[in-house]
Each structure stands twice: as C-alpha cells, then as structure tokens.
Amino acid sequence: MPSLDIAATGMQAQTTNVDTISNNIANMTTTGYKRRRAEFQDLIYQDVRRVGTMSSDTGDLVPAGAQIGLGVRTAGIYRINEQGTLEQTSNALDMAIQGPGYFQVTLPSGEYAYTRDGTFSLSEDGTIVTADGYPLSPNITLPNNAENITVDQSGQVQYTISGQTQAQVAGQIQLGIFQNENGLAAMGQNLFTQTTSSGDAILGTPQAQGYGLIQQGFIEESSVNVVTEITDLITAQRAYEMNSKVITASDEMLQTLTNLK
Hints:
By secondary structure, the protein is α+β, with helices and mostly antiparallel strands. Helices cover 23% and strands 31% of the residues.
C-alpha cells in the first residue's frame, strides 16, 4: 500500500523538523545565533485520471482528474536573519552589529569567515581576535600600553596611552554583506563561509548605507524565541504521531486482507 511509504516520508520529515527545533533550543544562549526553520515540499503525484483528458467521444474534458500524492520531502532549512536582542556587557572589546552585516575574520588557512559573534579579546601581540584566536580582518593591533579603548558606531577603533590625552587610531572595522545570506555555509564556532550561492562578501564601513552600526560593550543574543520553539515542537510531535497512526491503520487493513479466506 502506498500509504505506508507516504506516512514514512511524513515521519522522516517531522524527524528533520524536530532536529531543527532541538538545535534552535540548544543554541538559545549562543551569541549571534539565528534560528532555523525547516521547509518541506510535496513529492510527485500519481495520475489515476489525468487532468484535462477527454471523458467521452464528444470531447468532454475531465474537470478535476484524480491525483494521489506520494509524500513529502525536506526542501531546505533556512536561517531567519532577524536582529537579536543586544545585551550590555560593558567589556570594551565586545561588539554587536545593529543591522545588516558580518564581522570578517581570517582563518588559519588564510581564508575568510564571517560571524555575528562580536565577543572579541586581545591576543598575545595585541591583535583583536575571536574566542578561538582568529584575527579580525583587516587586522587591528593595539600596543601593550593602550588604555581607554573605544569603538565608535562607524567601526573606528581608538585608544589612548597613559600620560597622553590625544586619542590614537588603531584601525577601522569593516563589515561584509551578501546578496543571499541563506547561501552562507555554517562551519560551527559561530562562523560562516561564503559559497557560490551566497555570492562574494561586499565589504563596507559600518553605518554606511546598507550596513549596520557597531555597538561597543554589547553582544547580540540568539534570536531564538523559546515559546515559539516549544509550540513548534508540540506541532511536529503531533504530526509525527498522526503519520505513525496512518502506518498502524494501513497495517491493520493489510492484515484484514491477508485474513480473508
């Protein structure tokens, strides 16, 4: 019976849905995390009676036809790129992006990665780096006697030296934006890499047109809404149960057929 295979695809789809929701809940406190949503498509259809065929010799057409669907499949898992709440930390090297854009960092391979996680610190040589030690790109290095580090909304990093009042410019933060943010490939560690689907990063200065601004002393919280995720989880669980009941009903119908004498 096709219903067995159809219900099985429904159970597989809801398993993917629950996996996606559970990952959202697991990352509810991950800095800069964007919630994911699974999307589904119906599969091909079996024509029992094709739409538009003639029903008589006089040329009368079938108004609706008869098509039986063969199940569902996962079409994609999309990131919902909405702004997360900004949390104040008062750490001079914590930065949040308010609006579009990603920080660009340099990986050990020399390739670039992109992140919304603005939890930065200083390396042993004074370079601004991520929690995993990847330097911000372009590199910004502060002297070991730097004090009063400030980052304005346009991304300019300044500092003062003890005994001096004149601020020194350490560097300029740049942000990357993409034609298709959902085309970015997640690599873990709150990092993304560009792909053919995302297009190349378009670098620009924070606060310029089309780019977000920098908020020093803040980090961007996860955009996960726990109430929404729990509601979606219950819905997915019920859908899974209903598909399992279809399999049970189909099995009972087959058992009835095999018991006929």
